[in-house]
Design brief:
It is a single chain. The protein is an alpha/beta fold and 374 residues long. It contains 16 helices and 8 strands. The strands form 2 sheets. It has a 6-stranded parallel β-sheet with strand order 1-8-5-4-2-3, sandwiched between helices. Helix 4 (99-111) links the parallel strand 4 (91-97) and strand 5 (115-120). Helix 8 packs antiparallel against helix 11 (245-252). The radius of gyration is 20 Å and the shape is globular. The chain starts with 11 loop residues before the first strand and ends in a 6-residue tail after the last helix. The structure holds zinc ion. Zinc ion binds at residues 182, 259, 263, 282, 286.
Length: 374
């Protein structure tokens, strides 16, 4: 193995009312800036941003300027933030909210050579510690290039991550259930990674990262009901695991631990939802994809489905607004989706490249797993 530079977020402020203690935390981090830019939307400003801004001003910050994201993860929003950073320099950038706001903070901070701190208010994604920021396709993206699909900008880890567990507890549960599903998808991703490695398609393989991920997922599956009830040790354990993704991908030397065939299926489901005008969450699409691909991989899909049910994530097509045909179409198309991914990342070889699904085998699988009923 060639030597690699490993870097991840190692500074956290975690727990009840963490936002109220931001001043002490910044002092510990030796942050001496007196200006800050905060990336929010109207909702995250209300649940966390406003209080954070007040704390900063009371602790001696001169200016804290809030940016309100309206159009999602697109270049325009990053430009808006960059302009503000340029005028307030020097500053630290806070990304307050879900994946979109954090990714805009990460990208704008990175491009303006500023530091950024993530403040997740929901746990539907692992963006809080990730070294990439993900954006929607545009003719001219954040990096100035054309993109036909979602793309990543590698920005490195945040300076720190602040999690106010009271804020997350008050957030709609749907988001956390989706995050849970996206996390346990690692079971399929690990299987596919092993396959790619065995076939000589991927040179990287980290038994260490896999061991950590596997034990975490096993814990989540066993404790899904306690997590759903937000019982404290289990719920906090879940949040901390979600925050561990940045570490896992770095120490694993690859993002392969985050996605495999289940994410290809999830992409197909997302496209079906777009066509039907259904607003779905990434983790919800992944939930269905994970059940189906775990079945295809011969994993214990029953306990995966049970845990997803217990945590309140969708396990059936109707729950994500899709009919039987949409599921079957997606499964039949999944290999083509995988091939498209492999044009950019030839290492993302999965079971779909070896087990082509026909309309009949797709239907059988979807019926057997209870994803469709008729
Ligand atoms: Zn995912």
């Amino acid at each position: 193995m060639e030597s690699k530079f490993i870097t991840f977020c190692g500074r956290f402020l975690f727990g009840k009312d963490a936002i109220n203690r931001v001043t002490d935390f910044l002092a510990q981090l030796a942050v001496e800036e007196t200006n800050a830019v905060m990336i929010n939307d109207a909702n995250t400003w209300r649940v966390a941003g406003e209080r954070l801004s007040k704390s900063l001003l009371e602790s001696g910050f001169e200016r804290v300027e809030a940016i309100f994201v309206e159009k999602g993860a697109v270049r325009l929003e990053v430009e808006k933030a960059r302009e503000k950073i340029r005028s307030l320099k020097p500053c630290v950038v806070f990304g307050v909210g879900g994946g979109v706001n954090m990714d805009i903070a990460k990208a704008s901070g990175f491009l303006e050579q500023s530091r950024w701190i993530t403040v997740p208010t929901i746990f539907s994604t692992d963006a809080m510690t990730g070294i990439n920021a993900t954006f929607r396709p545009e003719e001219r993206g954040v990096d100035g290039k054309a993109h036909e699909g979602d793309y990543d900008l590698t920005v490195g880890p945040p300076l720190a991550c602040i999690v106010d567990t009271n804020v997350v507890r008050d957030a709609p549960w749907r988001y956390q259930a989706a995050g849970f599903a996206d996390y346990i998808a690692k079971l399929c991703a690990i299987e596919d990674w092993g396959l790619a490695y065995a076939r000589g398609r991927d040179e990287d393989f980290s038994e260490y990262a896999i061991t950590l991920a596997r034990s975490q997922v096993e814990y989540l599956i066993a404790n899904a009901p306690r997590i759903r009830k937000m019982e404290e040790p289990a719920f906090n354990g879940f949040l901390l695991m979600m925050m561990n993704d940045g570490f896992l991908t770095q120490v694993g030397g690859s993002s392969r631990i985050l996605f495999g065939s289940e994410h290809m299926v999830a992409q197909g489901l997302m496209e079906e939802q777009v066509r039907e005008n259904v607003k779905g969450l990434h983790g919800e699409q992944v939930a269905i994809g994970t059940i189906l691909m775990a079945y295809l991989q011969g994993l214990d899909w029953l306990s995966i489905r049970k845990a997803l049910e217990e945590v309140g994530a969708p396990t059936r097509a109707v729950q994500i607004g899709l009919n039987d045909q949409a599921i079957i179409r997606t499964l039949v198309r999944a290999r083509a989706i995988n091939e498209a991914w492999m044009r950019d990342r030839p290492d993302i070889y999965t079971i779909l490249m070896e087990e082509s699904l026909t309309e009949q085998s797709a239907k059988e699988m979807a019926l057997k797993t209870g994803v469709i009923q008729s």
